[in-house]
Amino acid sequence: MKIDIKTTEGFEHLDLTNFEINDDIEIIIRLKLIDKKIIKPIQIIHSKPNLTSNINIKIALYGNSSIEMPVEIIVNKGATGTSTNFKATVFLMSEKAKANVTPGLFIHEKDILSAGHGVVIKNIKEKDTLYLQSRGIERGEAREMVVGL
Fold first, then answer.
1. Helix 139-147 vs helix 126-134: crossing angle, to nearest 10
2. Is this structure's pTM higher than 0.85?
3. What confidence tier does 141 reach under pLDDT thresholds 50, 70, 90?
């Protein structure tokens, strides 16, 4: 199963709390948030064997936006052969933007294939876009290109 979210409304209505994995799943979230404050807890639960979950989140925060995202990936006893990966990249596009993404892995099974998580929160600054601007690309468009949403 694949879930691909590209709108704020879709993200706000997506409920990933107590989300039990019953099939291999890929979740892709790409968003621009402008002056929005969102609290979005995520809890992915593996209880069945030989299933894979991949979650890839990329969010750009503009203006006075903030996101609070506690993440729990749980692999229960008996979920042998599990593979799970969580990756989040958050771009702070203004000085007022704030992000707190805190992933955690809770592994209760020894026989799994892989489990990993990573978070990058990056301030986009003028120096990040200077090369593109030197090639004639306007500042706003250069910032969008660096983010790559």
1. 110
2. yes
3. confident
Token duo for residue 31 = 């968003």
Q: 51-106, pLDDT tens digit by residue?
A: 999 999 999 999 999 999 999 999 999 999 999 999 999 999 989 999 999 999 99
Is residue 42 exposed (0-12), middle (13-18) or buried (19+ Cβ within 10 Å)? Answer: buried
Locate 68 and state its tokens. 């609070």
In whole angstroms, give the CA distance from residue 146 to residue 124: 8
Spell 76-113 as b/e; 16+ CB within 10 A means b.
Answer: eeebeebbbbbebbbbbbeeebbbebebeeebebeebe
Residue whose token pair is 């993404």? 101
